[in-house]
Recover the amino acids of this structure.
């Protein structure tokens, strides 16, 4: 199995500011994904983080609001830009090696925007 | 488009009773199906996954799920509930082993003493 570390684990931020969340995997993985889990809700996929190219965003999510980087096969960042209280959620990083392995999830980053 | 529907946002059973959490999928091709569990204030943990090798899939903590193509279902069961099973359970589907995973709305399982 892969171990995924996310930082920070939680943060309280002022509206209008930006927060960058880091996701580190302990081994090389094929795919990395970012999800959002709003309070009491299920997980919604934000985007697929592509190594060496622009992320692939799902409907309703845009690069200007959620810029993503993936400089190598073990690391990715998600930035939540110009935050508002509606962005208060848990943000989770996921990784998959492919070839019939399951996706692993980080512990998540609990973000509160005030 | 792929999706999963979880019937019942909240299920409550007595300790020792059968647990049945329902999940139906919508997919034009045989999908990969998963059940994840999320304990309070924790991340997601994979319970089990279906990858077409066997229709009855056994997972961790005594859970199992059966893939029924005719019913497009992948219900999660456990013969005897334990207090430690109280958590949120998510059914999920993927098109391939390394593609994005689409989650259902989740079912909160409560266990009565």
């Amino acid at each position: 199995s892969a171990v995924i570390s996310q930082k920070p684990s939680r943060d309280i931020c002022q509206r209008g500011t930006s927060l960058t969340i880091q996701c580190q995997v302990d081994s090389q993985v094929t795919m990395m994904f970012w999800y959002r889990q709003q309070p009491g809700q299920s997980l919604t996929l934000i985007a697929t983080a592509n190594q060496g190219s622009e992320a692939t965003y799902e409907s309703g999510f845009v690069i200007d609001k959620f810029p993503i980087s993936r400089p190598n096969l073990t690391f990715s960042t998600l930035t939540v830009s110009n935050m508002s209280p509606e962005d208060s959620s848990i943000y989770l990083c996921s990784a998959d090696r492919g070839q019939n392995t399951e996706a692993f999830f980080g512990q998540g980053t609990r973000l509160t925007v005030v | 488009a792929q999706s999963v529907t979880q019937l019942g946002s909240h299920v409550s059973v007595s300790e020792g009773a059968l647990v049945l959490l329902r999940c139906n999928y919508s997919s034009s091709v045989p999908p990969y199906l998963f059940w994840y569990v999320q304990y309070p204030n924790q991340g997601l943990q994979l319970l089990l996954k279906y990858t077409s090798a066997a229709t009855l899939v056994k997972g961790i903590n005594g859970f199992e799920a059966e893939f029924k193509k005719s019913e497009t279902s992948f219900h999660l069961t456990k013969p005897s509930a334990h207090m430690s099973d109280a958590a949120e359970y998510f059914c999920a589907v993927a098109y391939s082993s390394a593609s994005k995973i689409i989650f259902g709305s989740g079912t909160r399982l409560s266990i009565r003493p």
